[in-house]
Structure formats: C-alpha cells, structure tokens
Amino acid sequence: MLSQNPIVTFTILLLVILTLPPLFERLRLPGLVGLLVAGIILGGDGLKLLDPETETMKLLSDIGKVYLMFVAGLEIDLIEFKKHQDRSLGFGIATFLLPLITGTFVAKIFGLGWNGAILTGSLLASHTLLGYPIVQQLGVVGNQAITVTIGATIFTDIAALLVLAICVSINAGNFSVISLAIQLGSLAIYAGVILWGFQWVGKQFFRRTTNQESNQFLFVLLVVFIAALGATLINVDQIVGAFLAGLAINDVVGKSPVKEKIEFVGSVLFIPCFFVDMGLLLDMSAFVNTFLTSFELTLSIIFGLLGSKFLAAFLAKKIYKYNWYETMSMWSLSMPQVAATLAAALVGLQVGILPEVIFNSVIFLMLVTSIFGPIITAKFASKISLPEVDFTSDNSLIWWETHQQILDSFTERVDGIVNHKFVVLVPVYFSPEQTKYLIEMAVMLAKHEGGLMIPLSIVKGYVNMDSPQLNLALQQSSKRLSSALEISQSFEVEATPEIRIYDDFAKGVSRTAREKNSSLIVMGWHKNTGIKARLFGNIIDRIFWSAHCPVAVVRLLEKPINIHRILVPVKKITPQALRTVRFAQLFADTNQASVTLLHVCDRQTSKEQITKFHAQLSQLISQGKTKVKSRIKIIRYDDVAPVISKAAKSYQLVVLRSMRRRTAAGLSVSDVTTKVLSEITCSVVIFGEPYS
Hints:
Elements: H1 6-26, H2 31-42, H3 55-74, H4 78-83, H5 85-109, H6 114-125, H7 132-138, H8 144-172, H9 177-208, H10 213-233, H11 238-253, H12 257-281, H13 284-293, H14 295-320, H15 324-333, H16 339-350, H17 356-381, H18 399-414, E1 423-427, H19 432-448, E2 452-459, H20 468-490, E3 494-495, E4 498-501, H21 505-515, E5 520-524, H22 531-546, E6 551-555, E7 565-569, H23 575-589, E8 594-601, H24 607-621, E9 630-636, H25 640-648, E10 653-657, E11 663-664, E12 667-668, H26 672-677, E13 683-688
Parallel strand pairs: 1-2, 1-5, 2-3, 2-4, 5-6, 7-8, 7-10, 8-9, 10-13
Antiparallel strand pairs: 6-13, 11-12
C-alpha cells in the first residue's frame, strides 16, 4: 500500500506543508487548520494515503510534538517576563486555576473519573499565543497587559504539563501520597537539572564554539532530545522536558543565527507533521457522532473555557486597573488552545486517560478558539494606546555617536587616544562598473560626517601563498580598489584600501570592520535569482548577524547624487526603527533630498491612535541634527506590502529595515520586507543592526 511506503508518506507530507497553510491563510484562517484538514482528508476516513500507525508517521509526529513544545519555550521573551513577573504570576495563576476547576467540574458531570477530569481541566488551563503576530504588527507588545499575558504563558504551560505528568504517572501504577511526593520531588530535581544545568552546559559549549554554527545547532537538538528522554525516565511526558529545555536554552542562543535555524527546521518540517498527524487521528465519524450525540459536552467545554478565561482577564482588570480594550485583548490572547493542549490531549488519549469523546471535543475546541481568538485580538488590540517611547537623549538614536562614546571611554582609559572618525567600510566584490554607485554613496556618507572610507576586498586563501590563482585574485582586487580610490579622490574624501586573505568572506568583512572600528558597512546587492545571488544573499545574512555595527545593503539603479525622494516605511516607534530613519536622514542631507515616513496601520486603528502616533513620530524625527525636509504619511490598510510597493513608485529610493522571520505556534510568519523587495523597481537600501 502507498500509505506504508516511507518515501510516499514523506513526499505527501512535504506537498501538504508547502501548499495548504498559505491557502488557508488567504482565507483568514490559521495555517495549522489547513494541516488538520489535510490530515482528515488524507487519513482513514478520506483518501487513505496516510496511515498514523506507520513508523514513519509516528517518528515525524513525535519529533514534531517535542519540537513544538521546545520552540514554545524558546520563543518566550524572558527579559520582558522578568519586568512584570509578579503580575504575570498573578494572571497566570488565575487563568490556570479557573479553567482547571471549570474543566474538571464539566468532566465530572459527564461521568469521567477524577484523574481524567483533572486532566481535562488542565487541557483548558494552558493557552497558545496565536494572536502574538497580531499584537506585534499593531505595535502594542510593549503594553503592560499584553506583556503580562505573554509572561503568564510560562506559568500556564508548565503547570498544565506538570498536571499531565502527574495524571500519566497515576494512570501507570498504584497511586499513593508517597508516590505523589516522590513524583513531585523527582520533577523538581529534573526541572532544576534542565533549567540550570543545561543552561550552564550550553553557555560553556557556545563559548568554546563561537564560529561553529553547525555544531551549536546539533548541540541544541541533542539537548532537546536528551531532556525529552530524561522526562520519560521519571514517568513524565516528553513534552515537559522539551518545554523546559526551551526555557533553559532561551538565554543561551539569544537572537543568534542558531536560533533562526532551530525555528526554521521546526516550523517548515517537523511541527507541521505533528498537526497533520493530529488530523489523521481524528475519527470523523466519531467526531460527527460526538457533536450530534454529545453536543452538550462539547458546548460545555467550549463555553466553560471562554467563561473561565474571561473571568481571569476580568479579575486582572479589577486588580491591575486595565481598561476594557486591554482586558479583552488579554482574554483573546489566552483563549486559543493549540500547542500544549493538542500535545497533552494526544498523550491522554494514547495512555487511556481520556476517552475519544473528550479528545474530539478538544479538537473542536481548538478549531473554535484558534479562529475566534485571533479575530477578537485584532479587533480590541488595535484600540490599545501605543506604549510611550522614552528616549533619554538623541544620541541613543544615532548609532555612530553612541558607539564612539563607548570607544572613547575605553581608549581614554587605555592610552588617552580618542578617535572621532566616522568610518564607512565597503566590501568590493563586484566589477568596478557594478560597484561605482555603491562607492559613491559610501563616499557621500563619509564626506558628510568628515570621516573616511575603507574599500575592502576579500581574497580567498590557498594552501600555497604563491599560487597563480591567488596572485590573479590579488591583481583583480587591486584593480577594483584602485577604481574605488579614484571615486573617493574625486569627492575629496580620505580612503584607505584594504585587501584581506580569508577563507570566509563574511568573517573577513565583519572582523575587518571590527578592527577598523567602522561606524557603518555599506554592501552591494543585485536583484538576481541565480545561484550566485543566492550565495551572496547568504553572505549578506551572515554579515548582518556577525557585524558589530549597522549594515546597509544597497541596490542602486541610478547615481546616488541624483536621488532626491526617499521613502522609509515605519512599522512602529522603536530605537531600531528610529535609527533606520536617522540613516535615511543622513543620506538625504548629503544631497538635499526629502524623506517621507510611511506608516501602514490596521483598518480598525482609531483616529486618536493615529494622531498620537503622528505627533510622537514628528517629535522624535525633529530631534535630529540634520535639517532634512521630512513628512509623515499614515495609511489604513490590512496588507502592508502592497501599500509600500505602490507608494514606492513615486520615489527614487526606499529604505527598509532588516527583519528576521519569526514563528508563532510553530508556523512561519511572513516577512513584509521580503514581499516588498520582490515588487519594487526603484533603488533600495536594507538597513540592519547587530541582532536586529
């Protein structure tokens, strides 16, 4: 049978993961719903192309389940959590205990034993932050109520998973107070080993393997599955260990490229396989029968969850003095039951604690909450006032002055030498004709600040330093640098060409920039789709991650001296966004150009919020030392990319901020920058900072 062939199974899964989530997202439905539907269609009640009992499906699903909980722990912002940990704990307790009690009460009414009833209650107690991308897009993540809700996820998920662990342990053997105490004690010891032991080991390993990303990635995977394996040894489900491992490794990987690789592998492969398997396990005949014959149970669970989660949010409103928009946002964010709920429900079904009728009701609950939760979040979070931005001084917005202050304080302590040079480093790896506009832009920036330009050529090393290939490469590099030097001389700007021999281009650029105390790296990028373009794209990405200073990746279609109209999309007011604006103002001032700041907000954003955002942005851009003509344009529209692309037609240059892809509930979130780059036809600058 086709369903028994591992290659056929894997091929079908890849096809499903590639096609269905985008289709459902166009219908304004979460992509994971599409994966569940695919599982139903391809399973035993449909086309019978996939079998959940095959070893291939079991393996991929188990890995996906473990990976999902690991990523959930990895994505929690521990810094923001620590700022409001007391309120997060308070709301976390409320939004855990109230649904737990409600779910237990409902399950007991419908005839479950205490163990199954308590586990049912714990399924309602946790929540998945499906609405996080929405509040992030609206720019209200910094709102205290939103931060508290995000922080509460730590408590609800850990507590729910611990209840699951205890219930599974009780189900596996004879229950006693002593065995419960032993189980809780072993859990505490195990959690301590994972949270502190693995974190210490991880930091030591990362410190010793600074430039070995592949080994670091493999180390993280090893930690995850060791934690999952260790959990099974103390009769705790694997997902508990995976979640704790995510929290432990959270601070180790930070925002490094390793974290991006971890999330990428999980979000595009393993986690979607888990959701497809959930659909395969759903018996449609039993599901329909459950709703028709036991709709009282299904409705009781759904309304029990909605009511208890709302009551928890209402208590937070009364205690912490939140307004109704914040309260409703807290309720909707804590409503969706996806990640921990589905994983725990599957475990409960597999070990025999939960009957199929409860499992099917939980699936229905997931469908309802995953659809309506984000919809309610979008409606009310858009009405939350944007958090105030507190910049103590204008220098915090000018990257080179802040960097120079740090450098000055260091050099004064060492030898009293102070260097105020603004240094622009320009990696030259295209032909002189392709590099001409790039060098001109770098020279204009350096001249404006009274600094110098360093054109840099990286030559790949050979075993023999007298190799003919190396000699030829050095000659070609000298020719490119001579061309760059001629341009700098025509602008009367000091330039010091550099040739470095490195096996790794990205490391050569970032290390030279550090050695020369560069204030800015300006790199070329061309809109090509071939293998070479993909290679340079990878190099650029690595330089973004490793450089100590900002990086401007440039695609210029005309002489920079002829550019007079600049567009800068601003998503929200943050130090990073304002520094991107400062860069645009700096370049505009070299050529008396004008800058337009474009903000695209949700259709439901109130006039008061728009007015407040406009006023705040106006105040901040007016603090700049440059006297550049600037204006602000705000447009209401749900899809940001088309608005930017259309507006770009009236401008000569668009300055975009480099943003990383993030994940939510294990599924990729689209990057607006990527969409815009594929559509605009004018010159482009992608501006990024270290770990931006």
